[in-house]
Amino acid sequence: MNFMPVIKELARTFQAFEGYSSPHIRSMGLTPVQFDVIATLANQEPMTFKELGDKTLISKSSLTGVVERMVQKDFVTCIDNESDARSQKLKLTVKGQRTFEKVFPAHLSHLQIAFDHLTNEQLHDIEKSLQCLHSIFNDQSKESP
Q1: What pLDDT is attached to residue 139?
Q2: Domain total for the chain?
Q3: Which of 30, 69, 72, 66 is nearest to 49 (CA)?
Q4: What is the pLDDT of residues 84-113, one digit of tens each?
């Protein structure tokens, strides 16, 4: 079980990242989930709920409620899906796009402060290690019954 320290450090790192990232997002008037939706929909063609769910970190069970609240706040709108009348597509409203243009660069600058402590080589090594781990779990989930 020599992998237990890796699991512990991965969880601790994610918690630390959330502790650094989330308060900044909240200070700009969004929840982390709203930020995720806005950042995913920005500068993209409208996408279905399924496509949005696949591209975000939001569970499919939470996505409907999140999107409904974002429609009420005029960040997102639903449009007809021309290729499938049974579903709708989501896109940012003008307000949603303006919000993205304000908060996304500000949040990237906030994250840059932390990531500036790493060299390009360290960033590359971390990225490769995480990709490897992701691939292993992804492959295993496909093989599981």
Answers
A1: 83
A2: 1
A3: 66
A4: 888 899 999 999 999 999 999 999 999 999
Nearest in space to 86 (alpha carbons), one of 48, 59, 52, 51: 48
> At 86, phi and psi to the nearest 5?
-80, -10
- Show the domain range for 53: 4-143
Sole residue written with tokens 């995480």: 130
The CATH code of the domain that includes 32 is: 1.10.10.10
Question: Is residue 60 scored above 80 in pLDDT?
Answer: no
* Stated pTM of the model: 0.88
Q: Which residue in 38, 33, 29, 89 sits closest to 65, CA to CA? A: 33
Look up residue 19 and give its two tokens.
């502790």
